[in-house]
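2.7 Reproducibility. Because tokenized structures are sensitive to small changes in the input, we list the exact sequence used for HEPN domain-containing protein, including any N-terminal residues retained from the expression construct. No trimming or masking was applied before prediction.
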Amino acid sequence: MADTEYTGFMYAAHRDVLVVENLAKEIDPYTEAIAFHSQQAAEKMVKNVFIQNGIVPSKTHSVDELLSKAIDSGWLSVEPPVIDAAINISMHAVAARYSQMPDIDRGEALQAIADCNTIAKSLAENGYDSVEIKVEVHYLHEEKPRDDSDE
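Resulting structure tokens (single pass, no recycling of outputs):
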């Protein structure tokens, strides 16, 4: 979807997803930003569940707290891996943004992408708006893809 098709929290989540998709083309210098924007996308998508139910979400960066409230309200039904993803990704909310040296490695950045997508898929399965981070597989490997045109 184009940005013009999103509003509010979903517009903001989509913008975070675009940042991650572009930074993931060269992961290593951008691990903190990738983890942070993955968390932000997940947070905004979960906050959108509240908006779609006519409730202003609380001012928290804790995706797991928001997810728990949505489950307790009867808006979502999720499997344990989704709760685990929310707990995992929540740590990237403040650490990546405010720490002197957050020290997020490649694996943690990739896990943040996976956690965001786990949450996005669950929201979609529950009938809510979501947007997944699409990263080409060759960007996820240590080495850059071979350019056969040099031969």
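The radius of gyration is 16 Å.
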